Amino acid sequence: MPFERYVEPGRVALVADGPLKGKLVSVVDVIDQTRALVDGPGSGVPRQQIRLNQLHLTKFRLSYPFTAPTRVVRKAWTDAKLNEKWAESQWSKNLANKEKRAAMTDFDRFKLTAARVKRNRARTAVFKSLKIKAARSGAFGKKKVLKTPAKKQRTKKAPAPKPAKK
How many CB atoms lie within 10 A of CB 140? Predict the structure, then answer.
């Protein structure tokens, strides 16, 4: 499959390493094969060079001229509503979940495990009932499962009369 994300002016990237880790930047210019000039006016990153192996390219791309000044990049950033689009992306949500999990206490992990157990038991019960229904209708499995007869209600028998003593 061909590349769809190129290192090009306007490409938005996530910094993966270093002191700016986790911040969004936009590539302003490619310096050489290993470095790019980036600017992140919407995320508080000043214009600077950064190694390409420290960047994760995103699907977002801003349109501004080659080597545009920060004010032009800022205007393109706000016009594209990049911060809102990033917050809605699945990538951003996964990063937020990762941070939440890293901040969990032992008790939080215990509660999560207990909730998972409860959810899985309910899921298993529903799955088994659906599986049995499908098997009875012949849509699942090789053999048709016979329906078990309904259990009879237990009733107390009338006490038998005691034989008379002689």
Answer: 14
